[in-house]
Design goal:
Blueprint: H1 10-16, H2 24-57, H3 62-95, H4 114-117, H5 122-141, H6 143-156, H7 171-181, H8 189-202, H9 207-220, H10 246-253, H11 257-281, E1 292-294, H12 297-305, H13 329-337, E2 347-349, H14 352-370, H15 376-383, H16 386-395, H17 406-417, H18 431-446, H19 452-506, H20 511-530, H21 532-535, H22 538-551, H23 558-581, H24 589-605, H25 619-622, H26 638-648, E3 655-659, E4 665-674, E5 679-683, E6 689-693, H27 695-703, E7 707-709, H28 715-731
Parallel strand pairs: 1-2
Antiparallel strand pairs: 3-4, 3-7, 4-5, 5-6
Helix pairs in contact: 1-3, 2-3, 2-8, 2-9, 3-7, 5-8, 5-11, 6-9, 11-28, 12-16, 14-16, 14-28, 15-18, 17-19, 18-19, 19-20, 19-22, 20-22, 20-23, 22-23, 23-24, 26-27
Protein name: Thymidine phosphorylase
Biased composition (Low complexity): 619-635
Region (Disordered): 1-22, 95-114, 231-262, 609-635
């Protein structure tokens, strides 16, 4: 076992954290956790190394490449020290556990303002936001096991109570230990964020098994064995008659907690960056400026409902004609605000959170309008929904914090379904296009602020997609099976022909024997190749050819002639049985076997004084297994090798776009990779085959810019990632 696994460090950990003795069950948990975290941390560091190498490989300049290589070197040199520091800190938590304060508001409180952000550096802010997101996600995802563990640890440690519980495995403690351990690394913020991301992915996200094991050990020790967890914790039920916050209520009832925590963290990160931009620009908070009348939510919703729809949505109008619609949402809102009569003479203004939401919707649609992964007609249709989505976001701010929000789910479903739509498809005859077009038209015409419309449309669209996908899956399965059979048959015939030609060329054969092998025995070999995974007869059929050619050689040595006598009877029996099985020339089979025996006897009687026998080591190539195909053509240079690596990363079900020489393009999905033929089979969204290429052919297509991989992640999630990246570059 690797030293870094933690096992070899246990004695050192006990010494480092032995300020006071711990109960035996806690010591057992400590040893298990330290070993497990050591293994997980190794995976995180390995992933960091791979990420930095990939970034360096794709760097746009030598300076950027050197930066990543220097970071790799720094982390490799100090990695063991970081791992040791982290594990020692965890051991110390068990010896002297930090108290867990009562639940405080999540990272979104305290309020973000220019004054607070001006005291925090950009790098520190980004790192803190990443840590807050990591901790929030872990607390949400492992809420039950963490609560049980905290209750049990509080029973074990003297001095702990319900008011001041302890939990050495709380996510905030583990994250603080890691943050402290990596302070020794002299790397920049981007590399530090990569390190935190992989720590989250490999360590924090896999805490469940360690938490469960810790709970199991304490249960075996009889510490609160019947504890059960139900629902969310840390939130008191609202008093009777009180209206619960909509985001909390819906988050508690729907959707995985991990996804909600992730999205909330992203939204808070965006808000903090926008607030930092306002602080850097010296823009005061309008909520505290006496010159402004801040518009409330109800007033704003009324204002949004009065906004005109700049796109006609009458029946018969093709909404996908032309280019995607670009709408200046901020300008529209500001123009509408000028028409508001505040009644007190003050200038109407929006709350900062509403301004942030409007800015965020604008940035999201900027990404959507530039997203190459969306097919153009679907992109145009979705662009029509900017004002309706803005109304949704202002009315229900959980759009960004809940992956299960009905409007968000519908947008993702429309984008996902339209990824395979090609320009060559006829919109007038396409049911999917009609369905998406109808959904957009209904939203434009019918949405009045009631989110039930999105729920209804999403449910109808999912039912439609389920029917279409079932039909396409059956067609695709038949296509895939047909292609596998065709390619395997083609490969079998090519292999049989190649092997026979190679063997026959080495030694001239009499015409009757040549005819039997090429026209008759080749069929036996063909069937054996196809059935080899069940009958395992391929090697035997190849050996029959080798034995026949060997027996047709004149042999001089007595030992060889004795072997000839032993081989021939079995050889004749195998040849007859195989030829009968494939019904080869049944009327003349006896006659052909007689000719074969005559040629064999003739060869046996021939005893030349000097006969150099062919090197029979040549049978090695002929005995290749049918599953082992000849290697694909090697790249001609190092440049194509990079693209071959990208092709190998494509998985079944991934969508790509091919561009033809004449400028046309089409989209298709990888349906099958047939390794023995080095064949990649692509189908359209109906499941029908559209193209088939080898690995090297695909690499050349990608190198020429004629093949593009399409991203299939959720549209809104990708858009949020792009917005975060854009804001991060602006605040750097």
């Amino acid at each position: 076992m690797n030293k870094q696994s933690g096992i070899h460090y246990l004695r050192e950990h006990r010494k480092a954290g032995s300020t006071r003795p711990v109960p035996p069950e806690v010591a057992r948990i400590r040893d298990t956790v330290i070993a497990g975290l050591g293994d997980l941390l190794q995976g995180a560091f390995d992933a960091v190394d791979d990420s930095l190498f990939e970034l360096a490989n794709n760097a746009r300049s030598n300076n950027e490449q050197n930066r990543y290589f220097e970071a790799m070197r720094e982390i490799r040199i100090k990695r063991k020290g970081v791992e040791r520091h982290f594990q020692n800190a965890i051991a110390q938590f068990f010896a002297d556990p930090p108290g867990s304060a009562q639940p405080e508001p999540e990272p979104s409180a305290p309020p973000v303002s220019a004054e607070t952000l001006s005291l925090v550096g950009n790098d520190d802010l980004e790192e803190q936001v990443a840590l807050n997101a990591m901790i929030t996600k872990a607390k949400a995802h492992f809420q039950g096991p963490l609560l049980q563990l905290q209750a049990r640890f509080s029973q074990v440690y003297p001095g702990a109570s319900d008011e001041s519980p302890v939990n050495p495995l709380a996510p905030e403690h583990l994250c603080s230990a890691f943050t402290e351990a990596i302070q020794v690394l002299e790397i920049q913020i981007r590399e530090r964020l990569i390190l935190l991301k992989q720590f989250d992915r490999y360590v924090v996200s896999n805490l469940g098994m360690l938490l469960d094991e810790a709970n199991r050990i304490l249960i075996q020790a009889g510490i609160i064995p019947n504890f059960r967890y139900h629902g969310k914790t840390g939130k008191q039920a609202p008093p009777p008659g009180a209206k619960a916050d909509s985001s909390e209520t819906s988050e508690a009832s729907t959707g995985p907690a991990e996804t909600a925590a992730d999205s909330t963290a992203v939204f808070e990160q965006i808000r903090q960056m926008l607030a930092l931009q306002r602080a850097n620009a010296g823009i005061p908070a309008r909520a505290t400026d006496p010159r402004f009348h801040v518009i409330g939510d109800r007033e704003l919703i009324t204002l949004l409902s009065a906004l005109p729809t700049p796109v006609p949505a009458e029946p018969g109008v093709n909404l996908s004609e032309g280019e995607p619609v670009t709408i200046d949402l901020r300008g529209l809102i500001q123009q509408a605000l000028t028409q508001v009569d505040t009644g007190d003479g003050k200038q109407p203004a929006l709350k900062e959170v509403d301004e942030d939401l409007i800015n965020l919707v604008s940035m999201l649609f900027e990404f959507i309008l530039d997203d190459y992964n969306l097919s153009p007609p679907v992109q145009v249709l979705i662009s029509r929904l900017q004002i309706p989505i803005l109304k949704v976001v202002i009315k229900d701010k959980t759009f960004f914090s809940k992956a299960t929000h009905p409007a968000r789910k519908l947008l993702n479903a429309l984008a996902r379904a339209g990824i395979g739509w090609s320009k060559s498809d006829e919109k007038t005859k396409d049911q999917l296009y009609d369905k998406i077009h109808g959904i957009v038209q209904r939203i434009l015409n019918e949405f009045d602020g009631d989110l039930a419309l999105f729920e209804t449309l999403n449910e109808e669209f999912e039912q439609y997609l389920a029917r279409e996908n079932r039909r396409a899956s059956l067609v695709e399965q038949r296509t895939r099976e047909s292609e596998r059979g065709r390619i395997k048959s083609q490969k079998a015939q090519e292999t049989v022909d190649r092997i026979l030609q190679e063997k026959i060329r080495r030694y001239p054969l009499p015409e009757p024997i040549h005819s039997i092998l090429v026209n008759g025995w080749s069929r036996v070999m063909f069937l054996a190749y196809l059935r080899d995974d069940v009958e395992h007869r391929w090697q035997e059929t190849v050996k029959v050819v080798d034995d026949l050619i060997w027996c047709l050689h004149p042999h001089q040595e007595d030992a060889e002639r004795d072997q000839w006598v032993r081989v021939v009877p079995g050889l004749l029996k195998s040849l007859r049985a195989g030829l009968e099985e494939v019904s080869y020339n049944a009327s003349r089979l006896d006659e052909m076997m007689g000719e074969l025996k005559h040629e064999l006897a003739k060869a046996f009687r021939t005893r030349p004084l000097s006969e150099v026998r062919e090197d029979e080591a040549t049978t090695a190539e002929a005995s290749e297994q049918p599953a082992a195909s000849s290697p694909a053509g090697q790249p001609e240079d190092a440049a194509i090798a990079e693209f071959v690596t990208q092709i190998d990363a494509i998985e079944i079900g991934d969508w790509v776009e091919f561009r033809l020489v004449n400028g046309a393009s089409f989209r298709c999905k990888l349906s099958a990779i047939i390794e023995e033929a080095d064949s990649f089979v692509f189908v359209n969204r109906m499941g029908l085959k559209v193209i088939e290429k080898t690995r090297l052919e695909l690499a050349h297509e990608m190198r020429r810019g004629r093949l593009t991989l399409l991203e299939q992640g959720s549209l809104i999630d990708r858009a949020l990632d792009a917005v975060v990246g854009s804001l991060r570059s602006k605040t750097a």
